[in-house]
Design goal:
By secondary structure, this protein is mainly α. The protein is 88% helix and 0% strand.
Length: 211
């Protein structure tokens, strides 16, 4: 599996210019909204993983990989582990940068406060891959992107409707306080469980797929 990780890192090396250009665009937006740079850092690993899927699909790499002592489960596991590792690295980098800037501006740092936006973005990127990875393994990258956008739009619409209904019932303030205490951790647990289910689904899809 470590060989698969090295392969993806070599692939990303060829796209480093494009990825840096993407980060530069977010840096320009950060002039007006500093948090945009941190969001860009968290989105970067997700874009990188899309690049590796595109390479594998165009080069028909999975068929070649199966001629080596590599199982289909390892092919899937590598993609999931690499994304989690990249997101965790960017999360730590984001918190470090935010903490450093905040310390020099105010003379004090609240880790929980500065980590909330990066952590929320981290969960959002995991949530996207939770749906997208099984779809990619099932129908390919290009169609997978379209279906992922549709699913994300439906989820966002449902969340917006629920938020509006909750606001109309007068429960808004109580739910906000409850979310501030436990919301992110509850979402994190749900996403991690969903991520494991997503991994198992991807393994099952790839095992049944003709290469």
């Amino acid at each position: 599996m470590w060989g698969l990780i090295k392969k993806d890192l070599y692939v990303l090396k060829g796209y480093i210019g494009t990825l840096l250009l993407f980060l530069l665009c977010f840096s320009a937006l950060a002039i007006q909204t500093p948090s945009m740079l941190f969001i860009g850092l968290m989105v970067l690993p997700y874009m990188a993983m899309t690049v590796t899927f595109s390479y594998d699909q165009n080069a028909n790499f999975n068929s070649y990989a199966l001629t080596l002592p590599i199982t289909r489960r390892e092919i899937v596991k590598e993609k999931y582990m690499l994304l989690i590792g990249a997101l965790l690295l960017m999360f730590l980098l984001t918190v470090l940068l935010t903490g450093t800037v905040t310390y020099f501006q105010t003379g004090s740092v609240s880790i929980m406060k500065i980590a909330s936006i990066p952590f929320g973005t981290f969960l959002a990127m995991l949530s996207i891959s939770l749906f997208q990875y099984p779809i990619i393994y099932k129908i390919g990258l290009e169609k997978g992107r379209i279906y992922t956008i549709i699913i994300a739009a439906i989820i966002a619409a449902i969340a917006g409707i629920l938020g509006t209904q909750i606001g109309n019932t007068g429960m808004n303030s109580e739910l906000i306080l409850l979310f501030q205490k436990y919301g992110l951790w509850a979402i994190a647990c749900i996403v991690l469980v969903g991520y494991y289910i997503s991994y198992r689904m991807s393994v099952r899809i790839l095992q049944k797929k003709d290469m």
